Amino acid sequence: MTHLADAALPGLRPILPVPEYDRTSLRAGFVHVGVGGFHRAHQAMYVDRLLAAGHAQDWAICGVGLLPGDVRMRDALRSQDHLYTLVEKHPDGHVEDRVVGPLVDYLWAPEDVEGVVERMADPVTRVVSLTITEGGYAIDPVSREFAPSAVLREELASGAAPSSVFGIVTEALARRRERGLVPFTVLSCDNIQGNGEVARRAFTGYARLREAALGAWVEAHVAFPSSMVDRITPATTDDDRRDLAARTGVHDAWPVVCEPFEQWVLEDHFTGGRPPLEHAGVQLVRDVRPYELMKLRLLNAGHQTLAYLGHLLGHRYVHEAARDPEVAALLERYWREEAVPTLDPVPGVDLDDYLTTLLTRFGNPAVADTLERIATDTSDRIPTFLLPVVRDQLARGGPVGIGALVVASWARYAEGVDEAGGTYAVVDPLSDVLTAAAQRQGREPLAFLEVREVPWSASAVPAEP
Ligand SMILES: NC(=O)c1ccc[n+]([C@@H]2O[C@H](COP(=O)([O-])OP(=O)(O)OC[C@H]3O[C@@H](n4cnc5c(N)ncnc54)[C@H](O)[C@@H]3O)[C@@H](O)[C@H]2O)c1
Ligand SMILES: O=P(O)(O)OC[C@@H](O)[C@@H](O)[C@H](O)[C@H](O)CO
């Protein structure tokens, strides 16, 4: 068994495709916060492709982890020179493995926050990109305004070294302003409608609370492009590690498994330049909105349609639910009757083709995406993916029945007990409140709907009826 940690790339070449470019001379123009599965299957893969084509020497990636659990990613990547294997799984069972190399460093903020701030403030850094989840932006989903939690307010009031993404990015921007440097672009790659605008509101909101003049400078000088990102990337399992080792004889501490499909549509608005991503297959456009609406309302809301009903019917994988004729029929109706009528025309996209491809993607058994993953953090996901469709349909007097059924299936799922009496964990920042309310539904039918908390709130309590 060869360990990716110990292997020299030339030695691996006969076994696995490896980066052919010289990694020692790369400079990290990107600092990425939230190096999980998705970033490594998506943005890092596009940069790898550019580097392989001889572009973008200055656009390697320095990963950053802010949460305590990110120490595992630091250790895994550090042990193998920040290389990892990308495993693409096709529906017919064909598997493509290759080693990916654009990550050149990884900083874990709980150990060295000053190092993270200085890396962002360094002129080499030109884009700070983010995958910090839908709930990471502290934006009220209805008013779309920055709504700082008690923890963020305390961070601001204390004047101590920051630990949140807002505090760290704002401190780095403040240092760039003091040093007369062009600010970096802040690039959200999270699944949020208008993710650029949401990031702008969140980061300028935080900067303004820290210092009004700094907030005005961020507002005036920092670019926050929106982007639509797409590639189904389940969490890595031990089986994935074992299968990779059995196929290749290589042990990788943290490979990434994903589907073959990939899409990145990006608003072309960067303050300090960008790599020629168009050479790697990225669509650079002036207006991302129609692409975002299509993806979030069909794919992500589609996932929500499968998640709770599928689980309650006894399925455990996305492909099982998507291949269940009754669930698939409901999904098809949701798409065509409720979601599609709320979309804008999408340049160059035939929605029938898009939906046909989407059903095949959902039905890909090789990816083995779990319903548990897409049923996680629902209190962030339903407001982001599903409720905008319901609101648009209500405004136009259209149907909302299946959207309502999805919310009802979430309320039933949140009880934490399935139809056969089996229990499971409800993973959500509000799980205590939601599960307690869901379990009261039998005698108080509105209990679940009356929960008014937002997930990032420090003290989650149900609202008074
Ligand atoms: N997995 C996918 O299929 C997929 C596809 C498209 C987009 N995305 C987007 O990427 C995000 C991450 O997905 P993933 O699969 O990589 O998840 P993951 O769990 O593998 O990684 C998430 C990373 O985000 C960090 N993070 C979470 N909350 C944070 C916060 N508040 N502040 C700073 N860091 C935080 C975690 O520490 C971790 O490093 C999703 O929430 C979604 O918005 C995922
Ligand atoms: O990752 P989330 O929380 O935005 O949503 C869960 C899934 O719907 C999502 O990860 C999809 O797999 C992804 O958006 C496909 O591109």
Structure overview:
- This protein is an alpha/beta fold and 465 residues long.
- It folds into two domains: 284 residues, Rossmann fold, CATH 3.40.50; 151 residues, N-(1-d-carboxylethyl)-l-norvaline Dehydrogenase, domain 2 (Orthogonal Bundle).
- The chain is 43% helix and 12% strand.
- The chain contains 18 helices and 13 strands.
- The strands form four sheets. It has a five-stranded parallel β-sheet, with helices on both faces. The protein has a three-stranded mixed β-sheet with strand order 5-4-11.
- Helix 7 packs across helix 8, helix 8 runs antiparallel to helix 9 and helix 11 packs antiparallel against helix 13.
- The structure holds nicotinamide-adenine-dinucleotide and D-Mannitol-1-phosphate.
- The site of nicotinamide-adenine-dinucleotide has 24 residues, from helix 2 and strand 9.
Key traits:
mannitol-1-phosphate 5-dehydrogenase activity; binds nicotinamide-adenine-dinucleotide; binds D-Mannitol-1-phosphate; Rossmann fold; alpha/beta; Mannitol-1-phosphate 5-dehydrogenase; globular; Mannitol_DH_N; 6PGD_dom2; single chain; N-(1-d-carboxylethyl)-l-norvaline Dehydrogenase, domain 2; five-stranded parallel sheet; Mannitol_DH_C
